[in-house]
Amino acid sequence: MFDATKMANHLKTQAELRTDPFPYIWIPEFFAPEVYQQALRELENFDAQGKVGYENRPGLELYDPPESELFISLKKCIRSEVFMTTLFGLLGEKPFGKFDVTFNREYFHIYLGPHLDNPPRRLSFQIYFPKDSSQEDLGTVLGVKDAEGFQITKRLPFVPNAGYAFISGPETWHSLPILENTGVPRLSLLYRWKEEKKIGI
């Protein structure tokens, strides 16, 4: 269903490299519109099993993505050498690390404060799946942390078919705004490549 070379070329044309407050790419339209609508329908109707959550985020449900033709093909595409080389290359890196993906369905959280992703180093690539722009204020918040605290410099809009990616580091502070339980969950796919730790002798 997905052609990895075509998707990599599409990523090149869509991705906007930004450097404030740290290097990341913003992707305003990842899928073709009709493909996005199909993917959204499948995620909205997904009767997921085997959820995993976090103690400090009880409203968050994590699942393996649906085992449909679309999502199997998408996973294969994103794991392909040509796509990974393009994605990492936009951030000035060569592909590294062990890959995983989760479908995130979050109904509420009180506040997810500024934090760094836990080591080992990783690339995070998240695709947003809202139905419309009504959840626009629920995107990831980027900023800097100094002696005066966390200073927000950018709020990524949680809008349909958009996504972002960055490689974690000592300056990649980010957070999420308060998510009230309106009954409409915040849906996203989160792809990660984690650099495996090297054990010395």
What does this structure look like?
This protein has helices spanning 4-14, 33-44, 69-78, 81-90; strands at 16-18, 24-27, 52-54, 57-63, 98-106, 112-115, 122-128, 141-146, 149-155, 163-167, 173-176, 186-194. The chain has four helices and twelve strands; from the N terminus they run H-E-E-H-E-E-H-H-E-E-E-E-E-E-E-E. With 201 residues, the protein is α+β, with helices and mostly antiparallel strands. Helix content is 21%, strand content 34%.
Largest sheet: 8 strands, antiparallel
Shape designation:
globular
The span between the termini is 45 Å
H/E element string?
HEEHEEHHEEEEEEEE
Strand order of the largest sheet: 1-2-10-7-12-5-4-3
Count of DSSP-assigned helices: 4
Low-confidence stretches: none
> Which structural class fits the helix and strand makeup?
alpha+beta
* Oligomer type: single chain
> What's the overall average pLDDT, rounded?
91
* Alpha carbon gyration radius: 17 Å
Beta-strand percentage? 25-35%
What is the helix fraction of residues, given as a range? Answer: 10-25%
Count of DSSP E strands? 12
What is the element layout, followed by pairings?
Blueprint: H1 4-14, E1 16-18, E2 24-27, H2 33-44, E3 52-54, E4 57-63, H3 69-78, H4 81-90, E5 98-106, E6 112-115, E7 122-128, E8 141-146, E9 149-155, E10 163-167, E11 173-176, E12 186-194
Antiparallel strand pairs: 1-2, 2-10, 3-4, 4-5, 5-12, 6-11, 7-10, 7-12, 8-9, 8-11
